[in-house]
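New to this. Comment on this protein:
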Amino acid sequence: MSDSSQQPQDPLDTLLAHYSSVSASGSVPSGSSGPEKKKEYGYKDFEAILESTPIFMKETPKDGESNDVLEALRTLVFEGEGDEIATNFKNHGNELHVQKSYSEAIKAYTSGIDSNPKDITLKISLLNNRAQSNLLLKNYRSVLKDTSIIIALYTSKGLISDKALIKSMYRTTISLIALERWKEALDVIQRSQIILLQIPPNEDDEKLWENLKDKVSKGIYKEQERFKKLKEKKILNNSLIKSINSRGLINLKTNNPPDNPTPIHFDLDEIPIKKEEEEDEEEYKSKLENMTSLVFPVFLLYPQYSQSDFISNFQENTSFLDQLNIMFPKSSQSTSKIPFTEWDLKKEYFIDNLVIYVETFEKRLLKVGKELTLREIIYKAKREATNDIKKDGIVLRDGLLSFIVLPKGPVEKKWIEDFKKSRDGK
């Protein structure tokens, strides 16, 4: 019986054994004084391996999977000049691309590019193919790197525009659209249309470019609308702040503001429609700030029972009476359908028996006329600073206004006495 160690080894086994000993662990085999030099396998060796391995490369690994054979073959150094090596890598990349192994195809094309082919057409083809593989993987920035090089080569080398350039510009446009770089995409389309006059496209090509142009037009419109809305929102916010300040409110913010689902805003029914062709921005701002009503969130506090009501949208040109009419009965003998509140044990909270107070920033206590509008009350509380007198006004705490509601008589009198004692430190 012959010794198995004397049997000739399969070329693929030889290659894989060599690859495993040097590359698998990344370590140098014992007894070596330095890294072992890899054996170079020529193209004929490569062909021999393919012939002796029928199933080799019938199926390629999916992206992300490893394959020892494929990894080993990547170490081959092909014989021939740079162009020949680059062509081999290109062909290999094309096969991988057809099999939808795009990541592996990119590696093959990259190896071809790294071979520094002298044939400029071959180099452009490798770059274009790599760009297409990256495009299918949605690596849009990588696509732009390759297509930019292609366009630069055509410009710097004075190459005649051809279909390879159009392919590159097409892939450039798709990537720019995906990145929402609409103006750049439109520029590429416009330049491509000039080139297409020299290279008449077929009907399908024309449809592809028209579809891209349509996408870009919609993207530009969408971006303009978004910018317009952002600008209008900024104008509204700035004008809102000016409107609040002009009313003399003292704006305070605390560290723990309450939830406020309906912050102060302009009355949507009164916001003027801006006519861009007839009206400048300053005129529009003036209308907003001086002619548009504000809508406030307002707390009504009932300290006698530690209760409160929240009015989410108190339009400043409506009165407290307008609000109270839908909250409380008009009199103690009222026959209206509005009942007394459950917490009003003494049946004292009816409109004719209620008084309203508001505290200012400087601790002034002001009695509010129920018939007055909220705007009138705010302006009446406003006080400008003069000499030793400090500026004062109703406090807007965390975007909310607060008012005290009490029944007339002993409850009202006692609450006022307690307020003054607390304010004056007595």
Q: What stands out?
A: Strands lie at 250-252, 265-266, 294-302, 307-315, 354-359, 365-368, 395-397, 401-407. The two ends are 117 Å apart (CA to CA). The mean pLDDT is 82.
